[in-house]
Protein 1
Amino acid sequence: MNRIKRTDDATYEVIGFEVRGAITSDVDDRFGLLPRLRDPHTGEIHYGFNRVDEVGVTQFTLREIFAMGFTTDEYVAMIRFEAASSFEDHVRSEDELNALMDSQAAWKRRPADPDVTRPVSSARASAVEPLVAENEEIATRFGR
């Protein structure tokens, strides 16, 4: 079977964020800033339509995610998180991404350890999971 070559039909391209008049991907909060866009036909630069904290990473192309300073590992972890939530939830902050990446790193580092075989999907989940486990243990103890 022959390969079909496809191109992105983008009407714009994400080029990063504007900080003090300069376009960069090196910002403290990649989730809460509107990305800057370039019209590939005219070269004009304007603000994007959505922030990552509003829509998640699935609304952006891989090239756009890289232009915003995310790594491949971060992108894959966030895609897995969104897919695990049936695309109803997404990572909303650098803190949530850090918790997600820490859980992914622990899971990848020691896959045989029963405490880390299931990666934590978010900062919110890492706070709730111990409570769920405790409730299950209490219910088992009292025969429920």
Note: The longest strand covers residues 13-19.
Protein 2
Amino acid sequence: MTVDSPSRRRVLGAVSALGAGSIAGYLDAGTDGQEEQTRSESPRQVTAESCEIPVFTDKYVGFSVGRPEGWTIEYTGGIIWLAPIAPDDPTLAFVYPGWLEAGASVDDVASEFVAGLNDANADGGTSLHWNAETGSLTGTRDGKAVEGEVWTEQSGQYGLIAGGLGPEGAWSSLRETVANIPACLDLFPSVPLVVRTASASDAYGATTWEYAAPEGWQAGGATSLTIDVYGARNEQDGLYDAQVSVSSYPVIPGTTSFTHEEYLDAYLQSQREAGVYWEILDRGEPRLLGELPDGIGGSWELKAFPLLMNFGYQDMVVVVVTAITNWQNYTLSMFWWRAVAARRWDELAAISAIVQSSITILSHQPGAGLSPPVADSGVSDIIAEVGDANSAAQDRIGDQFSGALLGNDRVVIDDYPDTEILVPSNNYDPAQCPEGQRPIPHPATGEMVCGTVL
């Protein structure tokens, strides 16, 4: 069964009518996507009066949205976040599209959205109040007094929450810019992600890994402890412009003071000793990401390191997350490595993060070379939990949406019965297909067809 492709939507038109060279330039933008361009006129697009700012497009996830000059963009948990690149500026804009569950109201979801902001940031001095009658948003963010608005739109099952906030007294000058962001919103067919497996057996055990990636991406190497996935091959030189890895290394006896920085330095040094040339050109600010419990009563501490590195043939933005736990007389360690060609960061940052977050362990049998604590440490659970952390950030809100940006359905189609495909949940109207199915771009032809949700 074929279905119509989603058309471009005019969103918040009425609201609109009323109304950096260092590594930070790459990494402060968080999970970036693909292109920036100025949208041209089209009968299916919003009018120039409604969308007068540059448009940011991610072809992999399947959306476009307005992005003011000098603003960063991130998208996690179904929500698109934008903010100026400026220290100590509490200004924030947000766009949250999705298909509503039967009987759900977009205003109810908006109330949950504001409550979620407060819950997630209460320790950081954030307390916001939304007046559903007037749309006004007031309170504090990061301990600073702010004001703004939350706008909602509902058409059948489709719902949209958007708005923003800024320093108290400054909202009137920010409002038009913020209103242009959702006015440029467009959802369109995303790139399907094919679910694959890779198995390896060695002295440390036998592991079957699972990951999801676009066609053309592949596991370039796997061991019982490590998997590397490469993608975005450059046709000019045949090299891949994106690489993601997940590794869990053997325990280090007697080194209970092993730090994240020492672990990262030791790994980089091992790569140099193996003949890999690298040079660190710039370092971003490391960030502690919190802790996750394991299967033996301990807790893993996670820390992220953003780097700009040169590997001889090109500069790459590298984001490394290290995980360390000290257990009795052992140090256990893992890391997540994501490297993207600097010249293609906007294009590939999001999809590389999505591929990395999909990596999980289906099965693992410890080998003779693996120290006992690793076998019981719940490494596979930690890998899965870290992979799910971003998309789970707003689950309590997403419960009322049938899907959310970066939230995926697993689908199979008739002529690919043995291949599972991941597609973002909110790009397509679920009413276009029978119950239990959903629209999906065919991975070979791009034609919209109905696939069965697993």
Note: The chain is about 20% helix and 40% strand.
Protein 3
Amino acid sequence: MNNAAASVASPTPHSPGLPASRLSARQLAIVVAWGVLLWFVVALLIRIAPRVAFDRGVLTVLLFATGLPNAWLTVWLTRRLASLSTQQLVPATAIACAAAMLCDGIALTWTTLYGPETKDLVPAAALLLWGVANILLVAFVTARREGA
């Protein structure tokens, strides 16, 4: 059997009998809830942030600069909370990000959770996309470094 087939067929310690990258029902529930919680916390931070934070100036640049360090922390916490193996890290992180982005799409379209509709919402929405992309990138790089 080749390595690719072996890695898919071998169960992980966290999900006996499941392929290596497949999440257990418990892990799936954790990463979906974690994604929704992260989205809600960031949405509230955007709402309470001073509007100058999104005026495309120095504060906006600083917020974007925190994307990568925050992504490393988020991926590390995701892995710990859901007890993820290397093979599960990317799919689980993608599911958490998808849950957050679904909430974000609804909130941006049909609510004023982020605050009143202003031109400041465009950089705020871009910051959310930037953060998700950083999280996915960090998960991929981490799993790749560990041999997944």
Note: Confidence is low (pLDDT under 50) at residues 1-15.
Protein 4
Amino acid sequence: MTEVNLDAIESELARYDRAIGPGGEKAWSAGLLAQCVRPLVDEVRQLRAALAAAAPAVEPTDRQLLIAARRWALANGWHLTWSGWANAPIERDATTVVHWDEDELFVRRRTAAEAGASWPLGLGGLGRRDRYPVRAVREAVDVLVAVGVLPAELSSAYRAALAATATPGPAAGR
């Protein structure tokens, strides 16, 4: 989707308004157009500002974190399925399936004895489905570590502890 240049729209609107001049039906049309378009331009500016303020910041390490999680998953028998990642080549045989939408992470689990049956739709049936609201990649990875899907090495707490131990303390400068 291309970005609409609101300044250009306002500039063209003002130019059109000046070019028509006073009186006549064209002037009335230009005035009506200006009355309708200017509030729309203002509203779009306000919506853009609100959206920018609400959007979670993308950290520079998110891409590397996604790559590390994918590498771990592939190396540990996880497969990309029609609905997300599963710990078996066919989702029907999986005991854990992870999928997501824009702001939630879903982890479906069931016992090995239940594997091989179709995953039920809806609330009843085999296994359990847990929902976790997440707004960023780091948050999603931390949730998956906390519920035992991903290893601790991928968590932000682990990385922070590792960074803290790698930073020289006051005694190191002596």
Note: Residues 20 and 27 are 6 Å apart (CA to CA).
